[in-house]
Amino acid sequence: xxxxxxxxxxxxxxxxxxxxxxxxxxxxxxxxxxxxxxxxxxxxxxxxxxxxxxxxxxxxxxxxxxxxxxxxxxxxxxxxxxxxxx
Length: 86
Fold this sequence. Notes:
This protein is mainly alpha-helical.
């Protein structure tokens, strides 16, 4: 199940616990627990970004969502990508 959640994170354009839960037909609580475990096991990295963004908005891929509040992003680590390739 952890690998399934990791795969959904990898394929998602926007991270959403509720969408992953619906897609995998599991509870949101289970997805939240899986995300915590994947982070603990270093398969993903959670980042809250910088409270003072230094990127010009025109060059930022998040400009449509940004309101000058840091956006939480989740990225796969090399270890996470390697797991998905197996």
